[in-house]
Amino acid sequence: MSDLDLVEVAEGFECYTPATGNPVLTEAKLIYAEIFGRNTYLSGLTPIDPKGLVVDAGANIGLFTLFIKHHYPEASVLAVEPIPHNVEALRANLRHHNVSGVTVHPTGLSDAPGTTEFYFFPSMPGNSTAHLAEKLKDKQTVAKYANPAIAEQLYRNEAVQVPTTPLSDLLPPNVEIDLIKMDIEGSEEAALRGIAEEDWPRIKQLAIEVHETRSTLDSVLETLTTRGFKARAQTPEEAPKGIDNRIVYATRP
């Protein structure tokens, strides 16, 4: 079992995190502000069914899952997270906040079952990824806001082997999916390929953070529009200059 810290990220709100040694910030506070403060993932979508099914892909330590269960206590959530340290914190946060109705899948998403090498960032667990080279491009940007030694600390990483699963293999049969929220640090295209054609019609809407958009954004938008969605992309609020991310919102017209 790894060491988890219980941190206060807002007045009256605590959560567990595996983050260690970050000399700049408490990552969980940034994620809380993104989800609870700015409502990043739901702001571009239509209201979800209060008793519906939500997929939290890239659940990290569970803050979006907690957000959904706070606003929609009767909703069901599939929380998908590949990094073992993050899964441990996710489960601890569900217990800490006495949340039920959540199924945790400790796996990455891809277009085929297997095993993949991921990279865990101890100082920034939310940046953990299967695409190390792309993620390390951001280190140069961060170095402009801090000194190189701090950038080195933030982007220190360790490899971990994790299972991967097509998303369709995790979905319950014959149930509409009100929302797929996806923030999986560069694996978006493979994860979308892991949705079987027969499952697309039962997906109502998606919110996807797309990384390295110069090479992937057009592909993600085409995948969604060809399945009948109206999709648009926007830059996340307060995104550091130089970080190449977009949020794609996809709804049924």
Description:
This protein has seven helices and twelve strands. It has 253 residues and is an alpha/beta fold. The chain has a single domain (40-251), classed as Vaccinia Virus protein VP39 (Rossmann fold, 3-Layer(aba) Sandwich). It has a seven-stranded mixed β-sheet, with helices on both faces. The protein has a three-stranded mixed β-sheet with strand order 6-8-7. A two-stranded antiparallel ribbon has the order 1-2. α4 (132-145) runs antiparallel to α5 (148-154).
Tally of individual domains: 1
- The total count of helices amounts to 7
Strand composition percent: 25-35%
Poorly predicted ranges: none
Shape: globular
CATH topology: Rossmann fold
Architecture in CATH?
Answer: 3-Layer(aba) Sandwich
Radius of gyration: 17 Å
Query: Structural class of the secondary structure composition?
Result: alpha/beta
Q: Would you count the extended β strands for me?
A: 12
For the sheet with most strands, the description reads: 7 strands, mixed
C-alpha termini separation: 46 Å
Could you name the CATH class?
Alpha Beta
CATH superfamily: Vaccinia Virus protein VP39
Overall mean pLDDT: 90
Question: Share of helix among residues?
Answer: 25-40%
Secondary-structure element order, as H and E? Answer: EEHEHEHEEEHHEEHEHEE
Give me the side-by-side strand order of the main sheet.
5-4-3-9-10-12-11
InterPro entries: FkbM_mtfrase, SAM-dependent_MTase, SAM-dependent_MTases_sf
Protein name: Methyltransferase, FkbM family
GO molecular function, one term: methyltransferase activity
Organism: Saccharopolyspora shandongensis
